[in-house]
Amino acid sequence: MPYFPRLAWLLLLLVGAGAAFGQPASPPQRPFAQLIDVWTRQLDRIATRSEQANLLPVEIDTLREQVADVRAAASAAAAIARNDLADTKKLLAPLDVKPGSDAAPETDAVKADRARLSDLAAVSESQVKQGEVIIARADQLTERLTKLRGQVMLDTLLHQDVSPLSPDVWRKLGPQFKTAVQTLSAAVAAWGHEGLSALGSGDQDLTSLAFWAVVTVLLWWLGRFLRRRFGRGEATEPGQRDRTLAAAVDGVGLVLVPILAVWLVGRLLAATAPPSPIDVLVPELIGRVITFLLVVGLTATALSPRRPAWRVLPFTTESAHEQSRALRRLMAVGLSADFIYTVLTRGPGDRSALASVGALVLAILVAALALPVLANRAWHAVPSEAGGAGAEQPQMIGGTWWSIVRLLLSAAVLSAIVFALLGYATLAAHLHNAIFNTAFIIAFAVLAHRLVGDLLEEAAAPDTPPGRWVRHRLGLAPDSTLRGHLLVMLMFDGFLVLLLAVGIATAWGVDIDAIVEAMGQLMRGVRVGNVTISFANVGMALVAFAVCLALARVVRSVVRDRVLPTVDAPLPLRQSIDAGLNYVGVILALVIGIGVLGVDFTNLAIVLGALSVGIGLGLQNIANNVISGVILLVERPIKAGDWVSVAGHEGFIRRINIRATEMETFQRTHVIMPNSVFLQNPVVNRTYSDTSSRVEIKLTVGLATDVPAMEGLLREAALGHPRVLRVPAPIVRFERITPTGLEFELFVFVSRLEDRLVVTNDLNQAILAKLIESGILDPKPVPTFKLHGIEPHLGIKPGGVKPGDAQPADAQPADAKPASKDGDAAAPP
Asked: Does a cis peptide bond (omega within 30 degrees of 0) precede residue 728?
């Protein structure tokens, strides 16, 4: 055993060496002129053949493949010549002498090199032009052949054979049926005598069949293991992911393994060299059996009529039973009848009567079996919670649109009977095949969408092993939410839509080459001026924009979270820098995306200039606000955190965006104001230069009060508060003498605007206490002063001004609202 690996490696080396030495040497390359001549003659032959009548679609496809080969070879040769021309021009550029230059005279060697390179450039340019001519002619032939194939296909479908209503058909029916049976019996008898001998002669290589037999056994074992591990167990209420996973696992065992086994049997029968027409009928039979197995597997896994808890699609139990029985009955009987029709009509001799009557019988049989599949009772959906249990009309799978499509399909199935009666047997058969293939493709797409979606949900769920593994690998929290699977699902759905478009078009007879050419044209793009618009360019532009935007956000987050906190800068400045980085990142991403798209910025400027009038009229307000936002961020007349008053609104600026500014009022409401308001209206910014503010307290005392003592009392109360600034110092002003008393004003300064209310309240309390302590204010229910027999009225009362108390018009209470630096009354924040 230890020598076995070494022996295997030695055998592999010997085989590789033998293959290398056994390969013939590559033939010498033909001259370009000879290649052009060969390609021209090939295209001439194809053009002559395409002009002949009675071409079959298979022959047209062969001609198109030959044209495609010629075009590919000419394109490769033209690309090589184009590269040679570019290299020659690079070598020739330094040798060009500009007229009027002061360079030294050329030597003969330089002139000879320039002449040689010029000749090479001329040859390469001629080869490029000849290759482009071949390519253009090949494109013209391809377009002609594509139109010809469509016309031939249409003529074939609309070809009217003999009608089954003709008496001549029924006279020929018996003899043609007898001839068909005798031909088939003779072929089966010959196959029985010669088939086993051909299989045992050893002329057929059965190595691949043995390999696929081993693969089938391994898949059977794998499906059995997976059904035990993830299959439908005894759970009564499995989740959607469990149902989909179990359906996929059962599909491997119920569909894939039997299909491989049937395919192996078909390959084994084909290895026996069956005679005509059995050599054509064996693949037809194998294809129909595989189709029947697919339908049985899909109904058993998706509909699950006997186990409603494991049903993938939202059918009711009655509809699941009806749909499953109808589909299996249609496939079993319809495919059998279609194979019998193929057996009787495929063979030598005239079989027009068999084809005409058989097409009519097949159309009636298929319609009788297909209508129950399309009936409403087979498409009832499980009622949703929103619909309620008392809904009069049952909910239908697919809603109204699918009901309309089913109605159209029923009409198409019934119309096949009319076409068969009129003698259009080929058109009737084409309708049957197209409807079946379309339904099968849609069913496959729906199940694939459900399977992939549930598998992605399984991988994104935090309580599943795949979900835990993904979060561990990405370094995320165990309960974090993943959203990347939604983007993957969107991409898969786009791929499914593309497959549906190609598959359904092919099912209805649209030329697949025309579809591929159209898709290639979309990928290559449509040229508009100097710009090529294509899916590939648009996709690359979107990817470039997304990548640049992601990088810009990463840079912004790094600057915001790591760089700016270490810089000694105020919060409004940091917010402005963060907003500026956001705008710069978006603009750069847009510019790079437009550049990748291939748009010339000169042309873009011309287009924008032409559209400037429309933009100015339609987007005038938006552009005004955006430009105003840029000015606000650059000049910074207001900043985040400023106390401003503008256009009847007063509050704090919370954030300045590109179009509007967010203001928070003192009532804790948010006002979104356009940026242009701050440039078109006077703005009162109470914290423009600094955040300090002045507090003003007015009070009136008796006429007999000692003025210097009162001034010292007020100054002492102001300096005793910790939040009152010493610079500038508090100011006490003896304002005037009135008949009711002496009026004083106290001005103090605080460092923060938010401290105004707190300082005002504290100073009122401190001044009241000192007035009582010094005897200036008598703390009695009737606040009067008794100094030297004079009882002046004082505007400050211990309990505040009560309703009904008389008060002079010019008296100010001690707890008056502080005024701002501008003298206005300040509203509480």
From this structure: yes
Beta bridge partners of 742: 701, 737
What Rg, from alpha-carbon coordinates, does the chain have?
Answer: 46
Mean pLDDT over the full length of the chain: 77
Confidence of residue 417 (pLDDT cuts 50, 70, 90): very high
Question: Who's near 555: CB < 8 A, 6+ residues apart?
Answer: 581, 585
Per-residue model confidence as pLDDT tens digits over 305-353: 777 777 777 888 888 889 889 999 999 999 999 899 888 888 788 888 8
Cα gap 258→286, rounded to integer Å: 12
- Residue 155 tokens, joined: 């003529």
**Cis check: omega of the bond before 277, within 30 degrees of 0:** yes
Annotate 192-230 with three-state secondary structure.
HHHHHHHHHCCCCCCHHHHHHHHHHHHHHHHHHHHHHHH
CB 689 within 8 A of CB 695: no
Q: Which of 363, 531, 512 is nearest to 435 (CA)?
A: 363
DSSP string, 540-566: HHHHHHHHHHHHHHHHHHHIIIIIGGG
DSSP 688: S
Using the Cα atoms of residue 82, residue 83, residue 87 and residue 93 in order, give the sign of their dihedral. positive
Q: What are phi and psi of 510, to 5 degrees?
A: -70, 140
Residue 213 CA, chain-centre distance (Å), reads 42
- pLDDT value for 418: 92
Q: Which pTM was predicted?
A: 0.57
d(CA 824, CA 816): 12
Contacts of 647 (CB under 8 A, 6+ apart): 673, 677, 681
Which among 264, 248, 250, 257 has a CA at the least distance from the CA of 219? 257
741-754 residue pLDDT tens: 899 999 898 888 77
Among the residue ranges 168-182, 277-291, 564-578, the one predicted with the least confidence is 564-578
Q: Is the pLDDT of residue 245 over 70?
A: no
Task: Identify which of 356, 358, 372 has the alpha carbon closest to the alpha carbon of residue 409.
Answer: 372
Token code pair at residue 408: 């159209």
Q: Please tell me which of 202-206, 292-296, 304-308, 821-825 the model is most confident about, judged by mean pLDDT.
A: 292-296
| Structural tokens at position 696 | 């003003």
Decide: 366 and 413 in contact? Cβ < 8 Å: yes
- Cα(259)–Cα(220) distance, integer angstroms: 11
What is the enclosing helix (H) or strand (E) of 539?
helix 535-558
Phi, psi (rounded to 5 degrees) for 526 = -110, 130
Whether residue 58 contacts residue 152, with contact meaning beta carbons closer than 8 Å, is answered with: no
Give 199's contacts (C-beta < 8 A, 6+ positions apart).
268, 271, 272
Nearest to 80 by CA among 149, 32, 139: 32
Closest CA to 293 of 339, 256, 329: 256
**How far apart are alpha carbons 129 and 135 in whole angstroms?**
10
C-alpha dihedral (589, 592, 596, 601), degrees to nearest 10: 130
3-state helix, strand, coil in the chain (%, to 5): 65, 10, 25
Give the model's pLDDT for residue 388. 45
Span 758-783, average pLDDT: 82
Q: From residue 248, give the alpha-carbon distance in Å to each of 226, 301, 320, 493.
A: 10, 8, 18, 19
DSSP bridge partners of 724: 750
Angle at 28 between CA 22 and CA 32, to 5 degrees: 150
Count of C-beta atoms within a 10 Å radius of residue 436 = 20
Of residues 221 and 34, the one with the higher pLDDT is: 34
DSSP labels for 87-143?
Answer: HHHHHHGGGPPPTT--PPPPPHHHHHHHHHHHHHHHHHHHHHHHHHHHHHHHHHHHH
Question: Alpha carbon of 733 to those of 706, 709, 715, 730: distances in Å?
Answer: 14, 13, 10, 10
